[in-house]
Amino acid sequence: MQSFRTEIENPVVEKDIIELERKIHLFKDGKLDEDKFRSLRLARGVYGQRQSGVQMIRIKLPYGKTKVNQLRRIADVADEYSTGKLHITTRQDIQIHYVSLDRTPQLWADLEKDDVTLREACGNTVRNITASAMAGVDKNEPFDISPYAHAMFEFFLRNPISQEMGRKVKIAFSSNEEDSAYTFIHDIGFIAKTRNVDGVEQRGFKVVIAGGLGAQPYLAQSVYDFLPEDAIIPYSEALVRVFDKHGERARRNKARLKYLVKKIGVEEFQRLVELERKSLKYQTFHIDPDTYEETKRPESLTETVDVDVDADAYDKWFKSNVVAQKQDGYYAVNVRLLTGDFTTTQARALAKIVERLASDEIRFTIGQGFVIKFVPEANLKAIYSALDGLGFAEPGADSTHDVTACPGTDTCNLGIANSTGVAGALEEVLKQDYPDYIYNKNLKIKISGCMNSCGQHSMAAIGFHGSAIKVKKGILPATQILLGGGVVGDGAGRVSEKIVKIPSKRAPQALKTILNDYEAHSNDGEYHIDYYQRQGKPYFYELLKSLASTDNLVDSDFIDWGHEETFKTEIGVGECAGVTIDLVATLLLESEERLAEATEALAGSSYSDSIYHTYSALVNTAKALLVSEGLKTNTQAGIIKDFDEKYPEKGHFSLEKSFQETVYAMNENKPTKDFAQSYLTLSKQFVRDAFVLREKKDEQSSN
């Protein structure tokens, strides 16, 4: 670490990276529990890969915004530590693969030279904040949501309330009612709104909560038609605190916000959020859009870059990929990438193109492409020609032709069947047989390698997810077909329904059947989402059921897309959901770490952070003692309640009140220096008492 310690100006970041390296050494020396280490590295963007001995690194790019210098830095890092390939995710991140664990601290340090982070890109954290890629230039937006998404990102980055939750929290911002950020599938979704108050325009957001995909999709519920702009961060903080406290922890398949809200009801959940707000440091949080660093525009609109292009190809590209901005004279260019993959060579060339002909940034999209903004009209043919030279000028960005797919079995532990190969095959079908669908922005095709919906198949008009079918001859790769999902608008959507499971190699035939039926029987102008509702699930089952037959299999059906060997299921332990840590020693160690962090935060006058670290130490310690007694621990609220029942007499502990009253004092007091100090002092004594009790029990058991 010495080689880069002095190269990072931010001491907080430097400390983070040094801590990662230290924990890697402890883990490899057998001094750190594997589950605890997994949790730590995930929260630093280091994710276990399907292939043993290497890691996937997720680079966190808030709302997909990437400066050209940052893109060059990412390309350099990918060449140095990985394979020279980049992958855009549906959360506007970039992933690189096949990285040695030992090299991850240095990799992170190199990225930070251009303010690119890995922090909280994975794990039980507030994940990357996503947002409409056209934010700031969209003619239909009431205001630019970028400053608000950025403020939310900065607020939760390294925030102690969102480091070790039961599961992840996902937040999205949409520019307008079209809901291009898909707020309806998020834990918290914000849709830009304005209202007139005494003749003054006020900014705010419609708020929806508790949506999610995965194996059990849930649509988000509306909780505010209009929440003022200065209330969105306090509300989000209170919500995350409630989720952290009351959310499931033992059963990770039930540990998302959607399950908590379903269990207690949205009204009770909102009541708990309001109760939590009094203990917050900020009752309002002002976000000043004027301080936000805007995209740099080209200095001149008059310079013409003259190039010759194929007129027909350019016309298709312009009509399907180019959008006039709200800023006169400028255009935004949408670029589609097959499965979100491109090379470092392409990335560097792209940076040069953008600098020369457009702005100083790129926005990666939830559709695994990217947007180039502030292209002067005079430069459009030149940028088309340059993009075409890189293979980036395919028409149909964000259309039916622009198929979304997760990496699937290429690299993911949870992948059942290949998704990228299916995507390529479907795009070829569309190109050959359905060329006009490059203009259809409503019928989306999305593919996941398993049921967890990283490719967002659960909200697609036509969705596929990897599966398997067992027959007498063996197991063959399969795909589950889902239909009817999509965006309704203004925070509402529809979840796709499972229709039938078919051999994976028949996916192109299934797509043809679905589209041919749609063209033959839909009404003029009828969207596929409405056509599906009109016809109903049984209709589409009858349409597709013949493709599910296993009576006429051929040898190639037993070989997955992109493979030569016979298919077999090899599902590993997935890490996208994080982990649950139950080892007593690990929990007590973690309590000591939280106390150290609380002490540091107190010294730095970060009283709210200190209080939350102290709270975490109290709960972790109680959990350790309950686990040592063989008791189940599901939620933090349950742990607090159960501890008083297990230890009704306070003789073991220096507590003047019940454990519940002691812990929840944080909700009854403002985050002042005096309270933070007294809360920390009490917690330190409680942890010491717990260690003493633990030692006594160990002695008794050994005798």
Write down the overall geometry: globular
The percentage of residues in β strands lies in: 15-25%
- Fraction of helical residues: 25-40%
CATH architecture of the largest domain: 2-Layer Sandwich
User: Structural class, please?
Assistant: alpha+beta
Instruction: Give the neighbour order of strands across the main sheet.
Output: 1-2-5-4-13
How many beta-strand segments? 22
Low-pLDDT stretches: 1-6, 576-582
Major β-sheet profile:
5 strands, antiparallel
What do these coordinates show?
- The protein is α+β, with helices and mostly antiparallel strands.
- It folds into five domains: 2-112, Sulfite Reductase Hemoprotein, domain 2 (Alpha-Beta Complex); 137-291, Sulfite Reductase Hemoprotein, domain 1 (2-Layer Sandwich); 311-389, Alpha-Beta Plaits (2-Layer Sandwich); 404-558, Sulfite Reductase Hemoprotein, domain 1 (2-Layer Sandwich); 584-702, Four Helix Bundle (Hemerythrin (Met), subunit A).
- The chain is built from 22 helices and 22 strands.
- The strands form five sheets. Strands 1-2-5-4-13 form a five-stranded antiparallel beta sheet. It has a five-stranded antiparallel beta sheet with strand order 3-14-15-12-11. It has a five-stranded mixed beta sheet with strand order 6-7-8-9-10, covered by helices on one side.
- Strand 18 and strand 19 form a beta hairpin.
- The protein is globular and about 80 Å long.
- 52% of the residues are buried.
